[in-house]
Amino acid sequence: MHIRIEAESRRGLRIIGEIPNISLCRIEGYNGIGKTNAIKLLRLCTGDQPFVENDHSWRTFRNQLKSARVAITGLHGAQEITWTIDPSLWPETAEPLGDLIGGIRIDGQPARPRDVSPLLSVHHVMAADTPVSVLTERINTAQKHIQGWDSEVGRQRQEEIELLLGELQNKITECTPSQLSRDLSITTEAEKLAKSLADQLKTARERIKLLDRAVEVSAQLTQVRGRGPEMDQKIQELARRLENLDEQRRELDNQIKNASAQKHNNEKAEKEFENAQRHLVRQDKAFRTMRSHLQHLAAAAGVDPSEDALAAAKREASQHLNSLLEQQPRINATPILVNLLNSLTSSLESAEEEGLGNTVLIDSGEKGSGWTVAALKEAFQHQAQVLSEMAPSADAEQLAEEIEATRGRLGTIAQTETALRDLETGQTALAKAEGRLLKATKSLPEQTARNLEDLMLNRTALDQETRTVQGDHARLSHTRELLGGGKTEDALAAELVQLCRKANVEVARLRGLREKEQAELEELTRREAQASQQAALARRTSQGRLSKVTSTAHFLSQDSEISWLRQAVPQIGRLPDLSPADQAEVLTDVAAVIDRARDSLASTYSSLRGMETALGRLGSRIRQPNGRTGTETDSDRAAKLWLADEVRQWFESEVVRAALFNGGRDVRLDPDSLQLSWTAEDGQTNERPLAAFSSGQQAFAYTQAQVARLDRDENAASNRLIALDEFGSFIDAKNMSALASYLQARQVQAPNDQVLVILPLEISPAMASSNGSTNERVNALRERGYFAEAFQL
């Protein structure tokens, strides 16, 4: 490859302008002409950063270089790569430049740094390093690679993988067979308990109904024995009175009929009187029927048959109904709320046992305020107690019966109001009929009319008295019907004996037993409601668990993003064909695999970071062999073995072994003592400390090792520039000749590598001018301060 550099700089920065297309090239020149700077600039162009951890030198280089243009031709895989460089865009600290290097073109097309990497790389090998410093640098580089990868990629990647595995494990953790079996078992037991309590509640309610009826019959019997005979006698007296009044009415009606039937000359008036009389009889009969009906309804509603009394009773009954309806949700919900509060209290008590009592669970948003675990638990306990005390004595069924009775009374009041209106209408019709009759009477002869008018007044008075007696009779009869349910004393006594026998209780103990069992019923009602809610909650929990198992099984077996997991755990493929219980078993195995993977991940990253620490300790030991060492860890041992392998690879070359070990073999580094050992040609084992080689030997061995390491790179770029710098001061003629032979020999295996050997000037122009063979060198030295030619000795 042919390299041209056009650089504009300030304050003495120099960079050589050309590296010719010589596969194995030697450059000699004056110090300070920019040989090494050219290599550094080329490293920057190919994505490297030669000033790492040397920000001062970097800032000097950056500030002194104003601009540059680099062009490289004769590449394998491309005709030309050019860089147009503007250092003002570069950062203040020494870090890889990336796109900040400037404009890049490959064969005339815009390109990015990542497009350059496969085509070209630049490597700088310094001969001034000793094996100890090289090893230290290699260790530091490896340590930095670990640190860099961990901080830039590794830690984030570990977190991503850990998060992914954690999410999968969390999904599966909720689907274990033990959890599923436990939830199903809890559901079965809860439903069994709820059914048992429901059956007990049904039996208890039937027994309470029996006892209630017995108490009711007992009360009716007591009432009948105390008031029944007197009421019966009064009713009979009122009935006889009504019969007597009816007899008087019939007699008056006959007298009126006879009086109107006397002969007179006005047949039309007589006819009108007869019609008016018959109409009055019909209206009177209807009025008496309506009044009797009203009296019965008013007695049933327990209210006087008047507009004001009915309105007040209706208002009172409506308010009572609304109050009952407001109680109904509380009666139904109170056991549920109490159960919920008890459940929450239990969870908070568990948290309190774990030492979280003073932890703020709910933040009110105001400074210094909020609900702690302990405070919230106490509030829940207090509210549960309040709700328990607020619960009514009657259960929901009793409340429903009271609501129905109140609605029935409201209906009866409404019917009474209608009957009252009908009665008022009938009374108006009766008054009109009486007026009609009175008018017809006036058309009769004077004596007849006078007699009839007297009879009509008597009849009206008699009707009024009859209505009064009818009302008293209706009210008393209704009261008697309510007393004892309309049954006789003997019938009630017989029914009471039968009920007590069925309930297996003595009459004397009836009320006490009923109160006791009523209290037990109320407690059983609350327990049944709680058990029902617990069964429903357990059912939802187990159904949710079953759903979780099946959905997780479907997710693991179908989701395209976790196909890698199905490859790692083949039994996932059987999940769709299994029952939920069997699915849970497989999911447990999957969870165990993920758990092991998480442990392995943590162990791997821990070992990696342990290796970073071990490399740091190893570097310190190489720099200070006599320093203190602590207990050796597995990572320390691995770092030593890695270092030994690095050294072994340095000395794999026969040329190196011939130069440094007189043709010896099996060159090894003892990682504990840092002693080199090898087997000589005579079979004897020799040892030498790593730092005991001469500088020439060290430089030659280091150069061989660095070049050999590059040759082992499987991801090498298509073209490589390998610069071997500062060799003249460290490598003698023998080793320099061996180096040239080695480089010429490897060129066959790496035809696209250009090796550049940079040497200080060995001959002055004055001395060279006396020898004609060096005229080209002299001219080059005079023109640009260095010359370039094929490297051979």
Explain how this protein is built.
Keywords: Coiled coil. InterPro entries: P-loop_NTPase (IPR027417). Residues 187-286, 500-541 form a coiled coil. With 793 residues, the chain is α+β, with helices and mostly antiparallel strands. The chain has four domains: 2-118 and 694-790; 178-262 and 477-537, no CATH class; 264-444; 642-692, no CATH class. It has 20 helices and 16 strands. The strands form four sheets. Strands 2-1-4-5-6-7 form a six-stranded antiparallel β-sheet. The chain has a five-stranded mixed β-sheet with strand order 8-14-15-3-16, sandwiched between helices. A three-stranded antiparallel β-sheet has the order 11-12-13. A hairpin with a 2-residue loop joins β4 (65-75) and β5 (78-85). α5 (177-260) packs antiparallel against α10 and α12 (510-558) packs across α14. The two termini are 23 Å apart. The model is unreliable at 769-773 (pLDDT under 50).
